[in-house]
Amino acid sequence: MWTPSFKCLLRADGEREYLVGHELVDEFLEFVSGRGRPNTVRAYAHDLKVFFSVVGKDPVEVTPADVLAFVIEQDRPRAGADNVVRISDGRAGLSASTIKRRLAAVSSFYGYLVARGDVGVTVNPVPRGLPTRKSRHRGERGLPLVRGVRRMPVILEPAEVEALMGSLRTSRDRAMVQAMVLGGLRRCEVLGLRLEDLRLGEWRVFIAEGKGGHQRLVPLSQSFFSTVADYLNIERPAEAPTDRVFLALKGPRRGHPLSAEGLDEVLSAARARAGLVHGTCHELRHTCFTRLREGGMAIEALQAQAGHRSIASTRIYLHLGDGWLADEYKRAAEAIEAQATIGAAR
Questions:
Q1: N or C: which end of the chain has fewer CB within 10 A?
Q2: By three-state DSSP, how is residue 26 classified?
Q3: Which CATH class name applies to 158-325?
Q4: H runs (alpha helix) in 245-321
Q5: What CA–CA distances, in Å, run from 284 to 28, 149, 250?
Q6: 12-25: per-residue pLDDT in tens?
Q7: Model pTM?
Q8: Fold adopted by 7-138
Protein backbone atom coordinates (compact mmCIF):
# COMPACT_ATOMS: atom_id res chain seq x y z
CA MET A 1 0.00 0.00 0.00
CA TRP A 2 1.36 3.40 -0.95
CA THR A 3 1.37 6.39 1.40
CA PRO A 4 -0.08 9.55 -0.20
CA SER A 5 1.98 12.70 0.32
CA PHE A 6 1.96 16.28 -0.88
CA LYS A 7 5.24 17.49 -2.35
CA CYS A 8 6.13 20.62 -4.28
CA LEU A 9 9.37 20.60 -6.28
CA LEU A 10 10.93 23.59 -8.03
CA ARG A 11 12.04 22.57 -11.51
CA ALA A 12 15.04 23.97 -13.37
CA ASP A 13 12.76 26.20 -15.46
CA GLY A 14 11.37 27.83 -12.31
CA GLU A 15 7.98 26.13 -12.51
CA ARG A 16 6.54 24.20 -9.57
CA GLU A 17 5.84 20.46 -9.86
CA TYR A 18 3.38 18.80 -7.48
CA LEU A 19 3.60 15.13 -6.56
CA VAL A 20 1.38 12.84 -4.47
CA GLY A 21 3.54 9.72 -4.60
CA HIS A 22 1.67 7.40 -6.98
CA GLU A 23 2.67 7.02 -10.63
CA LEU A 24 -0.87 7.40 -12.01
CA VAL A 25 -1.73 10.40 -9.85
CA ASP A 26 1.56 12.15 -10.60
CA GLU A 27 1.10 11.56 -14.33
CA PHE A 28 -2.37 13.08 -14.07
CA LEU A 29 -0.97 16.15 -12.31
CA GLU A 30 1.67 16.49 -15.02
CA PHE A 31 -1.09 16.28 -17.64
CA VAL A 32 -3.14 18.96 -15.87
CA SER A 33 -0.12 21.27 -15.43
CA GLY A 34 0.07 21.69 -19.20
CA ARG A 35 -3.56 22.77 -19.41
CA GLY A 36 -4.53 24.31 -16.08
CA ARG A 37 -3.44 27.13 -13.84
CA PRO A 38 -0.74 26.43 -11.18
CA ASN A 39 -3.31 26.98 -8.44
CA THR A 40 -5.54 24.34 -10.04
CA VAL A 41 -2.72 21.78 -10.10
CA ARG A 42 -1.88 22.54 -6.48
CA ALA A 43 -5.51 22.15 -5.40
CA TYR A 44 -5.83 18.86 -7.32
CA ALA A 45 -2.67 17.51 -5.69
CA HIS A 46 -3.85 18.41 -2.19
CA ASP A 47 -7.38 17.09 -2.70
CA LEU A 48 -6.21 13.81 -4.22
CA LYS A 49 -3.75 13.35 -1.37
CA VAL A 50 -6.63 13.80 1.11
CA PHE A 51 -8.91 11.44 -0.81
CA PHE A 52 -6.46 8.54 -1.04
CA SER A 53 -5.34 9.06 2.57
CA VAL A 54 -8.95 8.52 3.65
CA VAL A 55 -9.81 5.73 1.20
CA GLY A 56 -6.57 3.82 1.71
CA LYS A 57 -6.63 2.01 -1.63
CA ASP A 58 -4.71 1.89 -4.86
CA PRO A 59 -6.40 4.16 -7.47
CA VAL A 60 -7.46 1.24 -9.69
CA GLU A 61 -9.26 -0.44 -6.76
CA VAL A 62 -11.54 2.47 -5.78
CA THR A 63 -15.30 1.84 -6.04
CA PRO A 64 -18.38 4.10 -5.79
CA ALA A 65 -18.86 2.78 -2.24
CA ASP A 66 -15.44 4.19 -1.35
CA VAL A 67 -16.41 7.59 -2.74
CA LEU A 68 -19.67 7.66 -0.76
CA ALA A 69 -17.76 6.66 2.39
CA PHE A 70 -15.34 9.52 1.71
CA VAL A 71 -18.25 12.00 1.56
CA ILE A 72 -19.54 10.74 4.91
CA GLU A 73 -16.06 10.98 6.45
CA GLN A 74 -15.58 14.56 5.23
CA ASP A 75 -18.94 15.52 6.72
CA ARG A 76 -18.01 14.34 10.22
CA PRO A 77 -16.83 16.78 12.93
CA ARG A 78 -13.10 17.36 12.99
CA ALA A 79 -11.09 15.74 15.79
CA GLY A 80 -11.10 17.93 18.88
CA ALA A 81 -13.94 20.08 17.60
CA ASP A 82 -16.94 17.87 18.28
CA ASN A 83 -18.90 20.70 19.86
CA VAL A 84 -18.07 23.31 17.23
CA VAL A 85 -20.44 24.12 14.36
CA ARG A 86 -20.45 26.81 11.69
CA ILE A 87 -22.93 29.60 12.26
CA SER A 88 -23.62 29.80 8.51
CA ASP A 89 -25.09 26.29 8.14
CA GLY A 90 -24.98 24.63 11.58
CA ARG A 91 -22.70 21.84 10.34
CA ALA A 92 -19.59 20.51 12.03
CA GLY A 93 -17.76 18.86 9.14
CA LEU A 94 -16.10 20.45 6.14
CA SER A 95 -18.12 22.95 4.16
CA ALA A 96 -20.14 21.68 1.22
CA SER A 97 -18.03 23.72 -1.20
CA THR A 98 -14.82 22.06 0.03
CA ILE A 99 -16.28 18.55 -0.28
CA LYS A 100 -17.63 19.31 -3.74
CA ARG A 101 -14.24 20.64 -4.83
CA ARG A 102 -12.51 17.49 -3.62
CA LEU A 103 -15.02 15.26 -5.40
CA ALA A 104 -14.49 17.29 -8.58
CA ALA A 105 -10.74 16.64 -8.36
CA VAL A 106 -11.31 12.91 -7.86
CA SER A 107 -13.79 12.79 -10.74
CA SER A 108 -11.34 14.60 -13.04
CA PHE A 109 -8.61 12.13 -12.12
CA TYR A 110 -10.76 9.12 -12.93
CA GLY A 111 -12.00 10.77 -16.11
CA TYR A 112 -8.35 10.94 -17.13
CA LEU A 113 -7.81 7.24 -16.31
CA VAL A 114 -10.91 6.23 -18.28
CA ALA A 115 -9.71 8.27 -21.26
CA ARG A 116 -6.28 6.62 -21.11
CA GLY A 117 -7.83 3.17 -21.30
CA ASP A 118 -4.63 1.35 -20.36
CA VAL A 119 -4.91 0.86 -16.58
CA GLY A 120 -8.09 -1.21 -16.29
CA VAL A 121 -10.36 1.68 -15.18
CA THR A 122 -13.36 1.82 -17.51
CA VAL A 123 -15.92 3.60 -15.31
CA ASN A 124 -15.59 6.74 -13.22
CA PRO A 125 -16.32 5.66 -9.62
CA VAL A 126 -17.61 9.12 -8.65
CA PRO A 127 -21.43 8.93 -9.02
CA ARG A 128 -23.04 11.70 -11.05
CA GLY A 129 -25.72 11.90 -8.38
CA LEU A 130 -28.11 9.85 -6.31
CA PRO A 131 -30.81 8.51 -8.64
CA THR A 132 -34.49 9.22 -8.01
CA ARG A 133 -37.53 7.71 -9.69
CA LYS A 134 -37.89 10.77 -11.92
CA SER A 135 -34.20 10.90 -12.85
CA ARG A 136 -34.17 7.20 -13.78
CA HIS A 137 -36.99 7.67 -16.28
CA ARG A 138 -35.66 10.90 -17.73
CA GLY A 139 -31.97 10.00 -17.72
CA GLU A 140 -31.13 13.00 -15.52
CA ARG A 141 -28.35 13.43 -12.98
CA GLY A 142 -30.52 12.98 -9.88
CA LEU A 143 -29.85 14.39 -6.43
CA PRO A 144 -26.34 15.81 -5.91
CA LEU A 145 -23.98 13.90 -3.63
CA VAL A 146 -23.38 17.12 -1.72
CA ARG A 147 -25.98 19.85 -1.59
CA GLY A 148 -24.23 23.19 -1.59
CA VAL A 149 -25.45 26.60 -0.51
CA ARG A 150 -24.67 29.68 -2.56
CA ARG A 151 -23.91 32.34 0.02
CA MET A 152 -23.85 36.08 -0.42
CA PRO A 153 -20.26 37.32 -0.82
CA VAL A 154 -18.80 39.42 1.99
CA ILE A 155 -18.07 43.03 1.06
CA LEU A 156 -16.29 45.84 2.88
CA GLU A 157 -17.84 49.15 3.86
CA PRO A 158 -16.14 52.33 2.54
CA ALA A 159 -14.73 53.08 6.01
CA GLU A 160 -13.23 49.57 6.17
CA VAL A 161 -11.59 49.98 2.77
CA GLU A 162 -10.16 53.31 3.91
CA ALA A 163 -8.83 51.72 7.09
CA LEU A 164 -7.24 48.88 5.12
CA MET A 165 -5.59 51.26 2.67
CA GLY A 166 -4.28 53.36 5.56
CA SER A 167 -2.65 50.33 7.17
CA LEU A 168 -0.62 49.38 4.08
CA ARG A 169 3.03 50.35 4.33
CA THR A 170 4.31 50.45 0.75
CA SER A 171 3.17 51.80 -2.61
CA ARG A 172 3.46 48.24 -3.92
CA ASP A 173 0.92 46.99 -1.40
CA ARG A 174 -1.44 49.92 -2.01
CA ALA A 175 -1.26 49.37 -5.78
CA MET A 176 -2.12 45.67 -5.41
CA VAL A 177 -5.11 46.42 -3.19
CA GLN A 178 -6.29 49.16 -5.57
CA ALA A 179 -6.11 46.69 -8.47
CA MET A 180 -8.54 44.44 -6.59
CA VAL A 181 -10.86 46.96 -4.95
CA LEU A 182 -11.01 49.40 -7.90
CA GLY A 183 -10.60 47.01 -10.83
CA GLY A 184 -11.88 43.71 -9.46
CA LEU A 185 -8.76 41.76 -10.43
CA ARG A 186 -8.26 38.29 -9.00
CA ARG A 187 -5.23 37.55 -6.86
CA CYS A 188 -3.56 35.53 -9.61
CA GLU A 189 -4.29 38.30 -12.12
CA VAL A 190 -2.63 40.92 -9.93
CA LEU A 191 0.45 38.77 -9.42
CA GLY A 192 0.53 37.84 -13.12
CA LEU A 193 0.73 41.45 -14.36
CA ARG A 194 3.79 42.26 -16.45
CA LEU A 195 5.23 45.68 -17.19
CA GLU A 196 3.93 45.57 -20.75
CA ASP A 197 0.40 44.87 -19.47
CA LEU A 198 0.12 48.37 -17.98
CA ARG A 199 -1.53 50.51 -20.68
CA LEU A 200 -0.86 53.89 -19.11
CA GLY A 201 -2.18 56.04 -21.96
CA GLU A 202 -5.45 54.10 -21.98
CA TRP A 203 -5.85 53.73 -18.17
CA ARG A 204 -6.33 50.01 -18.75
CA VAL A 205 -4.50 46.78 -17.92
CA PHE A 206 -4.20 43.69 -20.06
CA ILE A 207 -5.00 40.43 -18.26
CA ALA A 208 -2.95 37.82 -20.09
CA GLU A 209 -3.50 35.00 -17.60
CA GLY A 210 -7.13 35.19 -16.49
CA LYS A 211 -9.13 32.34 -15.02
CA GLY A 212 -9.41 29.46 -17.46
CA GLY A 213 -6.67 30.99 -19.63
CA HIS A 214 -8.99 33.72 -20.91
CA GLN A 215 -7.57 37.16 -21.71
CA ARG A 216 -9.25 40.55 -21.36
CA LEU A 217 -8.49 44.27 -21.34
CA VAL A 218 -10.07 46.11 -18.43
CA PRO A 219 -10.12 49.77 -17.34
CA LEU A 220 -8.63 50.77 -14.00
CA SER A 221 -8.79 53.98 -12.00
CA GLN A 222 -6.11 56.62 -12.55
CA SER A 223 -5.33 56.45 -8.84
CA PHE A 224 -4.04 52.89 -9.38
CA PHE A 225 -1.68 54.04 -12.12
CA SER A 226 -0.47 56.90 -9.93
CA THR A 227 0.29 54.51 -7.08
CA VAL A 228 1.93 51.90 -9.28
CA ALA A 229 4.10 54.65 -10.82
CA ASP A 230 5.36 55.57 -7.34
CA TYR A 231 6.14 51.92 -6.71
CA LEU A 232 7.99 51.47 -10.02
CA ASN A 233 10.02 54.66 -9.56
CA ILE A 234 10.98 54.22 -5.92
CA GLU A 235 10.47 50.70 -4.56
CA ARG A 236 10.76 48.13 -7.34
CA PRO A 237 14.29 46.62 -7.36
CA ALA A 238 16.18 47.94 -10.38
CA GLU A 239 18.18 44.72 -10.70
CA ALA A 240 15.10 42.51 -10.97
CA PRO A 241 15.54 39.77 -13.61
CA THR A 242 11.81 39.56 -14.36
CA ASP A 243 9.21 41.74 -16.05
CA ARG A 244 6.53 40.95 -13.48
CA VAL A 245 5.18 44.13 -11.95
CA PHE A 246 4.88 43.14 -8.29
CA LEU A 247 8.04 41.73 -6.71
CA ALA A 248 9.33 40.80 -3.28
CA LEU A 249 11.02 43.85 -1.77
CA LYS A 250 13.20 42.20 0.87
CA GLY A 251 14.64 38.90 1.98
CA PRO A 252 16.30 36.20 -0.15
CA ARG A 253 13.55 36.52 -2.77
CA ARG A 254 14.07 40.24 -3.30
CA GLY A 255 13.57 41.08 -6.96
CA HIS A 256 11.63 37.88 -7.70
CA PRO A 257 7.88 37.74 -8.37
CA LEU A 258 5.74 38.05 -5.26
CA SER A 259 4.00 34.77 -4.41
CA ALA A 260 0.34 34.25 -3.56
CA GLU A 261 1.38 33.45 -0.01
CA GLY A 262 3.32 36.72 0.12
CA LEU A 263 0.30 38.74 -0.94
CA ASP A 264 -1.88 36.94 1.59
CA GLU A 265 0.64 37.76 4.32
CA VAL A 266 0.59 41.44 3.32
CA LEU A 267 -3.21 41.59 3.57
CA SER A 268 -3.34 39.57 6.79
CA ALA A 269 -0.90 41.93 8.51
CA ALA A 270 -2.73 44.99 7.17
CA ARG A 271 -6.09 43.69 8.43
CA ALA A 272 -4.59 43.09 11.86
CA ARG A 273 -3.21 46.62 12.03
CA ALA A 274 -6.56 48.06 10.87
CA GLY A 275 -8.58 45.88 13.26
CA LEU A 276 -10.57 44.31 10.42
CA VAL A 277 -12.07 40.83 10.28
CA HIS A 278 -12.65 40.83 6.52
CA GLY A 279 -10.53 41.96 3.60
CA THR A 280 -9.22 38.94 1.69
CA CYS A 281 -8.34 39.22 -2.00
CA HIS A 282 -11.66 37.76 -3.08
CA GLU A 283 -13.63 39.97 -0.68
CA LEU A 284 -11.94 43.03 -2.17
CA ARG A 285 -12.97 41.82 -5.63
CA HIS A 286 -16.56 41.34 -4.46
CA THR A 287 -16.51 44.81 -2.94
CA CYS A 288 -15.41 46.31 -6.25
CA PHE A 289 -18.21 44.80 -8.30
CA THR A 290 -20.86 45.57 -5.70
CA ARG A 291 -19.88 49.25 -5.66
CA LEU A 292 -19.71 49.38 -9.45
CA ARG A 293 -23.21 47.92 -9.66
CA GLU A 294 -24.49 50.39 -7.07
CA GLY A 295 -22.94 53.14 -9.18
CA GLY A 296 -25.09 52.13 -12.14
CA MET A 297 -22.72 49.92 -14.16
CA ALA A 298 -24.68 47.65 -16.51
CA ILE A 299 -24.64 43.96 -15.65
CA GLU A 300 -23.14 43.10 -19.07
CA ALA A 301 -20.29 45.58 -18.51
CA LEU A 302 -19.79 44.15 -15.04
CA GLN A 303 -19.49 40.68 -16.57
CA ALA A 304 -16.76 41.89 -18.94
CA GLN A 305 -14.89 43.66 -16.14
CA ALA A 306 -15.02 40.56 -13.93
CA GLY A 307 -14.01 38.14 -16.67
CA HIS A 308 -16.99 35.87 -16.04
CA ARG A 309 -17.69 33.41 -18.83
CA SER A 310 -21.36 33.19 -17.82
CA ILE A 311 -23.49 36.15 -16.80
CA ALA A 312 -25.08 33.89 -14.19
CA SER A 313 -21.90 34.35 -12.14
CA THR A 314 -22.31 38.12 -12.33
CA ARG A 315 -25.96 38.28 -11.31
CA ILE A 316 -25.05 37.76 -7.66
CA TYR A 317 -24.07 41.44 -7.58
CA LEU A 318 -27.66 42.40 -8.39
CA HIS A 319 -28.56 41.27 -4.88
CA LEU A 320 -25.68 42.86 -3.00
CA GLY A 321 -26.57 46.49 -3.50
CA ASP A 322 -29.29 46.90 -0.85
CA GLY A 323 -29.96 50.48 -1.85
CA TRP A 324 -30.43 49.58 -5.50
CA LEU A 325 -32.80 46.71 -4.66
CA ALA A 326 -34.80 48.86 -2.25
CA ASP A 327 -35.17 51.63 -4.85
CA GLU A 328 -36.27 49.15 -7.53
CA TYR A 329 -38.83 47.61 -5.17
CA LYS A 330 -40.19 50.99 -4.09
CA ARG A 331 -40.63 52.11 -7.70
CA ALA A 332 -42.45 48.90 -8.68
CA ALA A 333 -44.56 48.79 -5.52
CA GLU A 334 -45.72 52.38 -5.97
CA ALA A 335 -46.75 51.59 -9.53
CA ILE A 336 -48.76 48.55 -8.39
CA GLU A 337 -50.45 50.51 -5.61
CA ALA A 338 -51.31 53.32 -8.00
CA GLN A 339 -52.99 50.86 -10.38
CA ALA A 340 -54.92 49.23 -7.52
CA THR A 341 -56.40 52.54 -6.37
CA ILE A 342 -57.63 53.65 -9.78
CA GLY A 343 -61.42 53.89 -9.67
CA ALA A 344 -61.58 52.92 -6.03
CA ALA A 345 -64.32 54.55 -3.97
CA ARG A 346 -63.16 57.36 -1.69
A1: C
A2: helix
A3: mainly alpha
A4: 260-274, 281-294, 299-306
A5: 34, 21, 25
A6: 776 789 999 999 99
A7: 0.73
A8: DNA polymerase; domain 1 (1.10.150)
